[in-house]
Design goal:
The protein has helices at about 20-40, 45-60, 60-75, 75-100, 110-115, 140-155, 165-180, 195-200, 215-225, 250-260, 280-295, 315-330, 360-365, 380-390, 405-415, 445-450; strands at about 5, 10-15, 120-125, 130-135, 155-160, 185-190, 205-210, 230-235, 240-245, 270-275, 330-335, 350-355, 370-380, 395, 400, 420, 435, 440, 455-460. Strands 11-12-13-10-9-15-16 form a seven-stranded mixed beta sheet, with helices on both faces. A six-stranded mixed beta sheet has the order 6-5-4-7-8-18, sandwiched between helices. A two-stranded antiparallel sheet has the order 1-2. By secondary structure, the protein is an alpha/beta fold. It has 16 helices and 19 strands. The radius of gyration is 23 Å and the shape is globular. It is about 45% helix and about 20% strand. This is NADP-dependent succinic semialdehyde dehydrogenase. Belongs to the aldehyde dehydrogenase family. Pfam families: Aldedh.
Length: about 475
């Protein structure tokens, strides 16, 4: 895949970039190692000042960087601004909290005495350059939620971004440079996917984090495993959205529309499978379908647009194949189901709701990465939970109910990294984020995220 900015609203190639040569990659790896040797010795106070400076610069750049994101991957401009603002928030959160999150810990006195020590502490130390392989769908946020904790921990970052968002990737490198970080603390590697293995195998690279597809995660995890290097993976999701008898159906349906089409439906944590109890099914269905029909599909640069184009022509073809397979096998199209006739040239797809889903349909098992929802009718909580878990993925989930017993059952039994009760899934710097099953392993954000790439060191003192 060429490294290029291609406007998904028009299909026009706007700018192309040459991949780094092996010699240039080597120079950047050497620079990263040198930067790490210096950055790891800085104080939390100094790191916090740098991160706050980066946040200030990004805040000043919000309008420009939002337009770049929209131009490169098609998210509505208002969503792009919100993404940039969220990054500012995360930077400031880690600048304020990193020192306390990584403070030395003292084991229980009885355990210290039993170990034969006079005293002992547990210390969190940085590990070195970390390779981040990042996707296009949240081209700023996915990177910052890795970079902010990694840099505050004393590590340095090497970014291999998706090939269709090169300008956003280069902006991030420049942002941290402008903030005053040592040269090499955060670098963008404009390389193809075929060059990732060589970088990951380099002994100067300590670990890797990847957000992306399951095949990409398998590839990175395989190489990292062979090299015995730590990885964090956040992969696909086919998140269930349960609506149970005591739910506020009107609010659940309105939220469901946003939960499904956020980021043009191209979000791992977007709700995709809507599992609704028979007692409230018809009322939810009517409101949900009406809400999906009312969405404005169009130019993502327009403030009035709710849903922009998919990021690529192939992405739309993949989505169409899932829908066509379902319809051919008996699914009912309640709304949408194709390309909007009035929008030519771009990779648009109409918000769609499918009902009558059966196990032999691909969309029952595979992630639909676009504004397509599947609607299921169930007769019991047992059936709802079983259907929620009937997927290889386990990123997040949503449960709508006022019944405390139902909530307890769902929290206990749904196989996912998150259960959001009476609300849609969202990430926040203070809450750990990650998945189960084939949605990956490890956690980002919060205390768990900053500690993922630390050497947890036991310091034992004898007499």
């Amino acid at each position: 895949m060429p490294i290029a900015t291609v406007n998904p609203a028009t299909g026009e190639t706007l700018k192309t970039f040459e991949a780094l040569t092996p010699e240039e990659v080597e120079r950047r790896l050497a620079t990263a190692e040198a930067a790490y040797r210096k950055h790891r010795l800085t104080s939390f106070a100094d790191r916090g000042k740098l991160m706050e400076r980066a946040a200030d610069l990004l805040e000043a750049d919000i309008d420009d960087v939002a337009r770049t994101m929209t131009l490169e991957m098609g998210k509505p401009l208002k969503a792009a601004r919100a993404e940039a603002a969220k990054c500012v928030k995360a930077m400031r959160w880690y600048a304020a909290h990193a020192e306390s999150l990584l403070a030395d810990e003292k084991p229980e006195a009885r355990d210290v005495e039993d170990s034969g020590a006079v005293r002992a502490v547990v210390r969190y130390r940085p590990i070195g350059p970390v390779l981040a392989v990042m996707p296009w769908n949240f081209p700023l946020w996915q990177v910052v939620r890795f970079a902010a904790p990694a840099l505050m921990a004393g590590n340095v970052g090497l970014l291999k971004h998706a090939s269709n968002v090169p300008q956003t990737a280069l902006y991030l490198e420049e942002l941290f440079r402008r903030a005053g970080y040592f040269e090499g603390c955060f670098q963008t590697l404009l390389i193809g996917s075929g060059a990732v293995e060589g970088v990951l195998r380099d002994p100067r690279v300590a670990a890797a984090t990847l957000t992306g597809s399951e095949p990409a995660g398998r590839a990175v995890a395989s190489v990292a495993g062979d090299e015995v290097k730590k990885t964090v993976l956040e992969l696909g999701g086919s998140d269930p959205y349960l609506v149970l008898p005591s739910a506020d159906v009107e609010k659940a349906a309105a939220t469901a529309v946003t939960a499904r089409v956020q980021n043009n439906g191209q979000s791992c944590i977007a709700a995709k499978r809507f599992i609704v109890h028979a007692d409230v099914h018809d009322a939810f269905r009517d409101r949900f379908v009406a809400g999906m029909r009312e969405l404005t599909v169009g130019d993502p640069m327009s403030e009035d647009t709710d849903v922009g184009p998919l990021s690529s022509e192939q992405g739309r073809k993949d989505l169409e194949a899932l829908v066509d397979d379902a319809v051919a096998k008996g699914a009912t199209v309640l709304c949408g189901g194709g390309r909007p006739e009035r929008l030519d040239g771009g990779w648009f797809y109409t918000p769609t709701v499918l009902a009558g889903i059966t196990e032999d349909m691909r969309i029952h098992r595979e992630e639909a990465f676009g504004p397509v929802a599947t609607l299921y009718r169930v007769d019991s909580l047992d059936e709802a939970v079983a259907l929620a878990n009937d997927t290889p993925f386990g990123l997040s989930s949503n449960v709508w109910t006022r019944d405390e017993d139902d909530i307890a059952r769902c929290v206990r039994d749904i196989q996912a990294g998150g259960v959001f009760v009476n609300g849609m899934t969202a990430s926040h710097p203070g809450l750990p984020f990650g998945g189960a099953k084939r949605s990956g392993y490890g956690r980002e954000l919060a205390e768990e995220g900053i500690r993922e790439f630390c050497n947890v060191t036991t310091v034992w003192y004898g007499a």
